[in-house]
Amino acid sequence: MSGTEGHTDGFTYPHVGATRDGGAGAALPPPGFHLLRRRTRLGTGPAARDAAGRALLEWRMHRGVGMTVEADAAEAAPGVEVTVGIGVGPLRLRAPCRVVWVVREPDRIGFAYGTLSGHPEAGEEAFVVERLPDDSVWLVVTAFSRPSAWYARAAGPVGRAGQRLVARGYGRALRRVAGG
To answer: What pLDDT sits at residue 22?
Structure first.
């Protein structure tokens, strides 16, 4: 594993790197932040893990839910800046982030990014594809966030419902890639 946890330069939230352990630590969520956890079964076996892990690191999961992705690199790596967008034309919301950590282990592949100035939310989101001892392969999305922009604050619970909907879409996108 490698990462930049502990360095808050440019991030719009404290506790940079807190998603590394999937939210098991006491720091999740930090005070004033909402927690999101979503697990989606993707398939079975190392081929499903590899296919889903590649798609995740290459931003294809995000594109699979209709987001645009502008990134400094073709693959997620610590320090890579990425702006994801959703919507069309002048209604497109842009969300700048920076990759905080990446994991590449035999049964875990994933990364987390944290919000930068201009993102409608403040917080961190982790995406990890993991293969369990029973050979099942899962996507685990763990995030903590709070509204940053006025329109995100105004959205309240509707905004959080939207986040849950997108997390569910991530799982569907990777399930298609993994053959599940």
So the answer is: 56
- Give 61-102 pLDDT, tens digit per residue: 999 988 889 999 999 999 999 998 887 777 778 889 999 999
pTM over 0.85, yes/no: yes
DSSP character string of 37-93: EEEEEEEEHHHHHHHHHHHHHTTHHHHTTT-EEEESSSS--TT-EEEEEESSGGG-E
Please answer whether residues 43 and 175 qualify as being in contact, where contact means their C-beta atoms are separated by less than 8 angstroms. yes
The three-state (H, E, C) secondary structure of 79-109, written as one string: CCEEEEEECCHHHCEEEEEEEEEEEEECCEE
CA distance 54 to 48: 10
SS3 160: helix
Chain-wide mean pLDDT for the chain?
85
Give me the pLDDT at residue 165, please: 79
Name the one residue in this structure whose structure tokens are 């034309």: 89
Which residue type is seen at 113?
A: Y
Q: What are the structural domains, with CATH classification, of the chain?
A: 2-178 (3.30.530.20)
pLDDT of residue 150: 62
State how far Cα 83 lies from the chain centre.
12
Give CB contacts under 8 A, 24+ apart, made by 24-28. Answer: 28/142, 28/144
Give the closest residue to 85 by CA, choosing from 59, 64, 61, 67.
Answer: 67
